[in-house]
Amino acid sequence: MTIVVFVKNTAQVTSRRCFSSHLKGLSRTGESLSSRWPHISSSPPATWSSWTTGLRFMSQGTASRSSAGGRSCRRGALALSGAAAVTAAAAFTGFLANINHLQRAEMATLVPRAVEEEQEEGDILARCRGFMSPPVTDVEVLQRRKGEMCTRMEMLIMETQAEFCKALEAVDGGTFKVDRWERKEGGGGISCVMQDGKVFEKAGVNVSVVFGNLTEEAAKQMRSRGKVLKGKDGKLPFCAMGVSSVIHPKNPHIPTVHFNYRYFEIEEEDGSKQWWFGGGTDLTPVYVNKEDAFHFHNTLKEACDKHHSQYYADFKKWCDRYFYVRHRGETRGIGGIFFDDLDGPSQEEAFGFVKSCARTVVPCYLPIVHKHLRDPFTAEEKDWQQVRRGRYVEFNLVYDRGVKFGLATPGSRIESILMSLPLTARWEYMHEPALGTREAEMLEVLRNPKEWL
């Protein structure tokens, strides 16, 4: 059960609502797609937070830095349960009036879940109405195959795309261009891109659902990771789908964020299927901000801990190893989580974990965006952002597995694959920041990854 607490100024109002009912009747004017697919154009309430079985406020100010308060104080969490929580909420009016930027931003940007747990296997068409576009697979086909993992995953990635796009539109004031494309070999995708907005220089959120026969080059890449693939007559039928996003803000004090969650299924010669999930979320700031890093990593850890106490630690290390620019000797950013080839402990449990991770993309990033919206910056800070973007490009083109797979797959949408690249970047010969500067501090973190929690 999820209870949403809206907090505006000093008043608290408790409300229960699900995302699907919240969307009813809302539509975007000037939308070129059919009116069957309404979009939210209004901004969220000024300040609101999520309350699950209690009351939780996060503070990155004095409480998070105090050692006397113990673990719960450092994590900035205050939990109350039962009827006492409702009574106690009013007592924290003074506390609410003094919370810092990140806390207020977190409460301003947490959104209701796209679908309540008990409704996730509900009517496909009703759920599709909240998407940025009709899904890649025909709705009637999805209805017939509602219980299959391919259908459930496609619905999840469509919901993730819609939720994130609408949150970004609310803070930027701009509108995503919705670009549907088809792959003649099978499947297609939906690319949502916003360029030259007020806040985001380039923001892209892509969904792809493709199928056909795996190429030998793609199969070779998978076998190099230990996959045993047995095709029939040299063919390996596959289905792959995922949602991916990269956001490049204009302000150098707002970090770049990336996430990707995907599902892969291969049918072998005997009719059996191999399947696995992959994905992750990571942050690439231009300058070190410990409060932002704590909030981002702690949000991911809370999602991981719902499924296994070791997931965050393992997948954080994997992320630091994966997003590593070897020829520079530095990580791409301050990490997050990353995993691949996840095929256990069961398909249902693996899907549940991926679902929890996908639902962190708004609450782990949008509070940071709100916190830094009005931060001033200098020309020198903008130049440093451009240099760091150059490193981002180097990783994506040289090392990123998804880019390499996409470029090796016939009929792939090149524009969508390279959507992750920024509009602008910079490469300076032999660039090295001066000792003692904030730029040097950032480079030190990238060369020696930290534990942020």
From TrEMBL:
Gene3D superfamilies: Coproporphyrinogen III oxidase, aerobic. Pathway: Porphyrin-containing compound metabolism; protoporphyrin-IX biosynthesis; protoporphyrinogen-IX from coproporphyrinogen-III (O2 route): step 1/1. It catalyses: coproporphyrinogen III + O2 + 2 H(+) = protoporphyrinogen IX + 2 CO2 + 2 H2O. The chain crosses the membrane at residues 77-97. The keyword Transmembrane helix applies. Its EC number is 1.3.3.3. Keywords: Heme biosynthesis, Membrane, Oxidoreductase, Porphyrin biosynthesis, Transmembrane, Transmembrane helix. GO terms for cellular component: cytoplasm. InterPro entries: Coprogen_oxidase_aer, Coprogen_oxidase_aer_sf, Coprogen_oxidase_CS. GO terms for molecular function: coproporphyrinogen oxidase activity. One of its GO terms (biological process) is protoporphyrinogen IX biosynthetic process. SUPFAM superfamilies: Coproporphyrinogen III oxidase. The keyword Transmembrane applies. PROSITE patterns: COPROGEN_OXIDASE (PS01021). Belongs to the aerobic coproporphyrinogen-III oxidase family. Homodimer. This is Oxygen-dependent coproporphyrinogen-III oxidase, mitochondrial.
